[in-house]
């Protein structure tokens, strides 16, 4: 049974119910040893439920969870041999840092001196040296989450589960801890599953991203793949392509002609679905041009600038085209109420046929 | 130019503000007087009876026409605290019964409180109310029947009988508070322990119980105080073999011995005051907010 390429975590058609309501509809996911997976989704999509079911806190209604080939669906959490970081830190306030980090070691029957030296080593790794006898309630948020990380790592788990551990921290501490966790993971080689609703966090930390929607996996893939080639309108808009535009694609000669509602058209040679489609695009895919401009492989829609903000680095504009509004980022400064051309390079649009919602093409 | 305009408008503002200012001062003065009067009335209601008790405890002779005792002395204190005296014996009995009652109540309330807080019990509300029942009916009626049942199984006049009666009475506090204390322990704290290898039992004793301990302590103190003060049940179940301090107080005051009664009452007051101070430290708002939920 123990194959040499046995997955660290193999979730197989997992179903979970809360009362009579099904929250996971047969989720399947395989994680290789040493891989860092990020589960991304909006709140209520079932990502935390999936993590807690893997940890054993939530009973499965069907399916299997195999850890290194061993089915653990009916194993209590303490016998699954993993460690978890919680959004709420979940540090025990009645214990010191030493008590918290050394808890798992004490359970394993190590001597007091051994626990002290192992905890000291873990704390050194996390830049917390000398805080052993500090009460955890006297620590800052970042320090607390580091102690929680130390508590998880002290037992040298093969699998680390992260339940939005960074979402309660300040932006600066969050980014710092992000890279620390990532560095420790590649150094110690544990397998990690990280649940988050922060797209950038998932993209920067994970080897593969799992996007979840309403109790199902919507897409799995490397960050760049999911970002550049979303397979459904949901994933496209979750990855930031929030502008939508209805287009009509017709075969023309060797390629196709893409036509927008107002008559602007462009011919294109790439593989795209034919018929009425909806285009999804991020605000940085579009740019501003002259209203009369004609560019190869791009549609230019004439519109007017109705709003301008400066979030830093570039300007963000809201462009009205007919009764539709689009957000666009552009490096240059433009006056408000000026007629402009909204330039959409066909290659960076995510096109999905209007009749069905999945199986999109990537122009 | 603009400075002048500002100055004049500031003057205008000051002028219009003068009248409300005096009015405000009168209001403030009035409310201070009301507060002081209220506090004084409250203090009198609270400390008046206490002062009377203290006065009686040091009055050797005090009879009707006189507004104050005729002669003062500590003779009755000496009588009460005489090692062979009734008072010391019944104090010991009272404290002993209270301690046993606390043990019995905790033995029930810790598992019951945990179950009520954590498990999905189908009749949760009904169970919570069940522990309230001993308080819901006229106590005399209940205790007469309890005494009858206890008599048939030989429990009347025994410490065990009295402890059981007190425990039944105290369980409402201890179970409700214990349930609230356990409910206030964040589930993630238990899950974190389970997650890194602790069994459910180990988790309970190293994480849940220590974190719920302040609330449980508070419930123990409530039970202790209730037992120390309890009169009706002890009267029906314990008399004449078991004499607690409240029974001694009753006997003393019925017999017209106000000095002994006052001193006994003052003794009963000590643990209450001490424990109230302790409870105030132990019972946190997050526990209190969960009582009865």
**Cα-based radius of gyration of chain A, to the nearest Å:** 25 Å
Parts with pLDDT < 50 across at least 5 consecutive residues of chain B: 1-17
Helix content of chain B: over 70%
**Strand percentage of chain A, roughly?**
35-45%
CATH homologous superfamily assignment of the largest domain in chain B: MetI-like
Largest sheet: number of strands, sense, barrel closure of chain A = 6 strands, mixed
Let me know the largest β-sheet of chain B: 2 strands, antiparallel
Number of helices of chain B: 12
* Number of domains as seen in the coordinates of chain B: 2
Distance N terminus to C terminus of chain A? 44 Å
Number of strands of chain B: 2
Q: How many distinct folded domains of chain A?
A: 2
Question: How would you state the average pLDDT of chain A, rounded?
Answer: 88
Average pLDDT rating of chain B: 82
CATH architecture of the largest domain in chain A: 3-Layer(aba) Sandwich
- By DSSP, the count of extended strands of chain A is 21
Strand order of the largest sheet of chain A: 6-7-8-3-9-10
Number of helices of chain A: 9
Cα shape of chain A:
elongated
Architecture (CATH level 2) name of the largest domain in chain B: Orthogonal Bundle
- Helix percentage range of chain A: 10-25%
């Amino acid at each position: 049974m123990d194959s040499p390429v046995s997955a660290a975590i193999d979730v197989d058609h997992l179903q979970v119910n809360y009362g009579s309501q099904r929250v996971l509809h047969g989720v399947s996911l395989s994680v290789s040893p040493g891989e860092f997976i990020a589960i991304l989704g909006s709140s209520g999509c079932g990502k935390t439920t999936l993590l807690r079911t893997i940890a054993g806190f939530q009973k499965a209604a069907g399916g299997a969870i195999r850890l290194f080939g061993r089915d653990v669906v009916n194993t209590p959490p303490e016998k699954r041999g993993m460690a978890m970081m919680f959004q709420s830190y979940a540090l025990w306030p009645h214990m010191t840092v030493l008590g918290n980090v050394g808890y798992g070691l004490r359970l394993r029957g190590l001597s007091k001196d051994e626990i002290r030296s192992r905890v000291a080593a873990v704390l050194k790794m996390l830049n917390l040296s000398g805080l052993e006898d500090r009460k955890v309630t006297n620590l800052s948020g970042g320090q607390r989450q580091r102690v929680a990380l130390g508590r998880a790592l002290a037992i040298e788990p093969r699998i680390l589960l992260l339940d939005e551990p960074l979402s309660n921290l300040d932006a600066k501490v969050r980014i710092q801890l992000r890279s620390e966790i990532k560095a420790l993971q590649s150094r110690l080689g544990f397998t990690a599953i990280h649940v988050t609703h922060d797209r950038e966090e998932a993209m920067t930390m994970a080897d593969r991203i799992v996007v979840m929607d309403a109790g199902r996996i919507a897409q799995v893939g490397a960050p760049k793949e999911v970002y550049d080639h979303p397979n459904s309108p949901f994933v496209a808009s979750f990855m930031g392509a929030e502008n939508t535009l209805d287009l009509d694609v017709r075969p023309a000669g060797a390629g196709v002609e893409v036509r927008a509602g107002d008559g602007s058209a462009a011919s294109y040679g790439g593989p795209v679905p034919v018929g009425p489609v909806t285009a999804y695009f991020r605000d940085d895919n579009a740019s501003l041009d002259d209203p009369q401009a004609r560019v190869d492989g791009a549609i230019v829609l004439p519109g007017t600038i109705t709003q301008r903000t400066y979030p830093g680095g570039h300007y963000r504009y809201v462009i009205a085209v007919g009764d539709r509004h689009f957000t666009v980022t552009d490096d240059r400064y433009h006056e408000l109420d000026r007629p402009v051309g909204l330039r959409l390079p066909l290659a960076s649009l995510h096109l999905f046929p209007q009749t069905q919602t999945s199986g999109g093409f990537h122009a | 130019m603009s400075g002048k305009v500002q100055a004049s408008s500031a003057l205008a503002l000051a002028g219009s503000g003068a009248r409300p200012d005096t009015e405000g001062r009168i209001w403030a003065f009035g409310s201070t007087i009301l507060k002081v009067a209220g506090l004084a009335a409250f203090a009198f209601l609270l400390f008046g009876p206490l002062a009377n008790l203290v006065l009686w405890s040091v009055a050797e002779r005090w009879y009707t026409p006189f507004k104050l005792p005729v002669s003062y002395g500590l003779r009755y204190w000496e009588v009460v605290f005489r090692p062979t005296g009734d008072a010391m014996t019944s104090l010991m009995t009272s404290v002993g019964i209270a301690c046993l009652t606390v043990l019995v109540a905790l033995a029930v309330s810790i598992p019951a409180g945990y179950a009520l807080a954590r498990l999905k019990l189908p009749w949760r509300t009904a169970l919570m109310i069940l522990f309230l029942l001993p308080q819901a009916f006229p106590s005399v009626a209940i205790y007469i029947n309890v005494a009858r049942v206890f008599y048939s199984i030989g429990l009347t006049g025994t410490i065990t009988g009295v402890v059981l009666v007190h425990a039944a009475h105290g369980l409402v506090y201890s179970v409700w508070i214990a349930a609230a204390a356990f409910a206030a322990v964040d589930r993630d704290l238990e899950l974190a322990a389970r997650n890194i290898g602790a069994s459910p039992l180990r988790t309970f004793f190293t994480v849940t119980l220590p974190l719920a301990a302040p609330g449980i302590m508070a419930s123990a103190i409530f039970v202790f105080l209730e037992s120390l003060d309890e009169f009706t049940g002890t009267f029906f179940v314990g008399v004449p073999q078991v004499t607690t301090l409240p029974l001694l107080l009753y006997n003393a005051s019925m017999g017209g011995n106000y000095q002994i009664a006052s001193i006994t009452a003052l003794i009963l007051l000590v643990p209450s005051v001490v424990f109230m101070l302790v409870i105030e430290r132990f019972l946190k708002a997050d526990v209190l907010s969960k009582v009865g939920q």
